[in-house]
Amino acid sequence: MIIISNTxxxxxxxxxxxxxxxxxxxxxxxxxxxxxxxxxxxxxxxxMEKEPGLARHQTGHNSGVIHAGVYYKPGSMKxxxxxxxxxxxxxxxxxxxxxxxxxxxxxxxxxxxxLERMHDLxxxxxxxxxxxxxLSGDQLLQREPHxxxxxxxxxxxxxxxxxxxxxxxxxxxxxxxxxxxxxxxEVQSLEETVDGVRVHISEETIDTxxxxxxxxxxxxxxxxxxxxxxxxxxxxxxxxxFRLPDTYNDRVSHLIYPIPDPDLPFLGVHLTRMIDGxxxxxxxxxxxxxxxGYGGFNVSVKDAAAIIGFxxxxxxxxxxxxxxxxxxxxxxxxxxxxxxxxxxxxEVELTDLGAYPAGIRAQAVLRDGSLVHDFLFAxxxxxxxVCNAPSPAATSALPIAEYLSRExxxxxxx
Length: 414
Fold this sequence. Notes:
Layout: H1 9-12, E1 14-23, H2 27-39, E2 45-48, E3 65-66, H3 77-95, E4 100-101, E5 105-109, H4 112-127, E6 132-136, H5 137-143, E7 151-155, E8 159-161, H6 163-176, E9 180-182, E10 187-192, E11 197-201, E12 204-213, H7 219-225, E13 232-239, E14 242-243, E15 255-258, E16 270-273, E17 279-282, E18 286-287, H8 301-308, H9 311-319, H10 321-332, H11 334-342, E19 354-355, E20 359-366, E21 376-380, E22 383-388, H12 397-412
Parallel strand pairs: 1-2, 1-12, 2-9, 5-15, 12-22
Antiparallel strand pairs: 3-8, 4-8, 5-7, 6-7, 10-11, 11-12, 13-18, 13-20, 14-17, 14-19, 16-17, 21-22
Helix pairs in contact: 2-6, 2-12, 3-12, 10-11
């Protein structure tokens, strides 16, 4: 895993030294840089991001939900991080006056099979220490007159914020503490030496004693630069959203979620109250052929070839073939997408589905085709990599940062 290089590349370009460098300007990377600076105030710490601004990818393209941890396996890192992250996120937003609202979530059952699964979810919530209330169809109608179902599970703790603003405030705190942020710094290569890691970017080399990598959509590629033998690939899933007309802003008081199918990897299309008062519908989950494909034409030859050439993709595709085709069909056929929404909100019309930016989910898939549902990390002597940070990574960013900071200090004796 350790690469000792005699290259003169770093000697030909500018060289700057830091005690610690964090790669990745999403909420997890920024929170980690701040936590490390708080733990080691005298250390020289750099936060690097390849884009011209922070939170340009997953952090800036999600729905802003502060999750309570309803779906997650009891005892998993995801469940633990989420529960602690919920409280930490509320506290951070209130301390720094970032807009936040505890609006609650309703998981709506529309038939008997979903009602049975809802009861199972209620049990899982109890195991995870989440308080819930079961509602009848009539009680649901009283709370949400525009939503239909035969029952619902109310999760009071769930809320909403704007994670871009949270990230901005975290970065401001990091700078105020003496940390340095470098934007437009795309990593070209990484070299681990006896004393640390060299990070090569365009015409400059960063020499750092320890490296923390929070690379999101590029996690596997950054790990491979360190010669880490990864047995997974990041497969991008494009989540497409629509925005409802302003007339819906006062029609929905809570987050409205379907009861998820345990045989499917994602949660399904839901109605989300955004922190600005608007209401969105989504997301679906369509295989992406471009890791950062947010626009109209979303195909990258490099990204598509990496997906097609990975055996785990074909095993995953085979296991979820029917669901994948349905997602792709409804992505192209808007009435199919609408049908999912009208299952619990029948008054939504096709003309109500207005344009809204898509998001990309970085999903780690193993060589055997299984999806990695929990957090995944990789290490070398001088680096620690976040290889998979699944939803609810934004909610969990602060406890994730604590975990990474602790691991980095123990691994490098900082």
